Amino acid sequence: MHTLPTIDFTNKKNLKPGSTSWLATALEATRALEEYGCFIAEFDKVTPELNDAVFHGLEDLFDIPIETKVLNKSTKPLYGYVGQIPFIPLYESMGFDYSNTLDGVRSFIEVMWPNGNEAFRCVFNLCFPVSANVLAYNNLVTELEEMVTRMVFETYGVEKYLDAHRKMVTYLCRGMKYRPPVENETNMGFVPHTDKDFITVLHQNGVNGLEVKARDGEWFRVEFEPSSYIVMSGDAAMAWSNERLYSPFHRVTMNGKESRYSIAQFSFLEGIIETPKEFVDEEHPLLFKPFDHLKYLDFYNKEENRRLECALRTYCGV
Ligand SMILES: O=C(O)CCC(=O)C(=O)O
Ligand SMILES: [Fe+2]
């Protein structure tokens, strides 16, 4: 039986880079990403009030009539409204387009008009409802993602590449709803997959359902509180680290009668991902050629590539 490690990132740990508790936490986090490809992070920057507001916002969002939701279109893969996937009928999701730049959240070209408790926002030619709460939430969760990324770079002694990495990071935030299955319906909420990004931070409304496949092939359930987050390494982190970090298969299975809402923040890199030479030696030959992360997403999103066991290996494996 596997249990995912829980790592404390709360204020009481007073995590300051270089401190004893920072170094210990960095080692713990890196080892967990190597062994399981994920861990549970206790993190208290998002207040319970903001947390509730984000999930109420998601409920309102998914309650909007389907005719309106489908107006949220995007040419970018995984952005916009994704609903009614035939083989996973319980699942709906909405991607929010936002990016962090060095001077904070990039401001959108905004046109807002009210719809119930939400405001519709028009970004370039993408229209979608996003509340200020989601943006506030994203900024706080980014702090967790930044801490973990820094810890991993430092633990591996490759911190000299961190600044360049940070300048390339761009985010996708996706809100998801899983309704409970009706009688005789599959309880598959989301099919097994690995994340294609660098680091994912995943959060849920208190209804469990996530399952992770361990390195030994065993699927195990991950249960976590509304005050905790799952931090997961994706395919890009696996390739970058020459497979020190693990990108685990995971899925969602729905049990019980309550809807599950989750929110995931994915970090993608705009540019070329290259394995630092520090990860390569005679015992550890280079496994992935340098690759353009966003072009890899385009590759993965082609129908014929979606079912590959490891799309990244096909795309740029040595
Ligand atoms: O909803 C979840 O807990 C998982 C979602 C997920 O794995 C994904 O969007 O990549
Ligand atoms: Fe995922």
From TrEMBL:
One of its GO terms (molecular function) is dioxygenase activity. SUPFAM superfamilies: Clavaminate synthase-like. Belongs to the iron/ascorbate-dependent oxidoreductase family. The keyword DNA-binding does not apply. It comes from Tanacetum coccineum. Keywords: Dioxygenase, Iron, Metal-binding, Oxidoreductase. This is Probable 2-oxoglutarate-dependent dioxygenase AOP1. InterPro entries: IPNS-like_FE2OG_OXY, IPNS-like_sf, Iron_ascorbate_oxido_reductase, Oxoglu/Fe-dep_dioxygenase_dom.
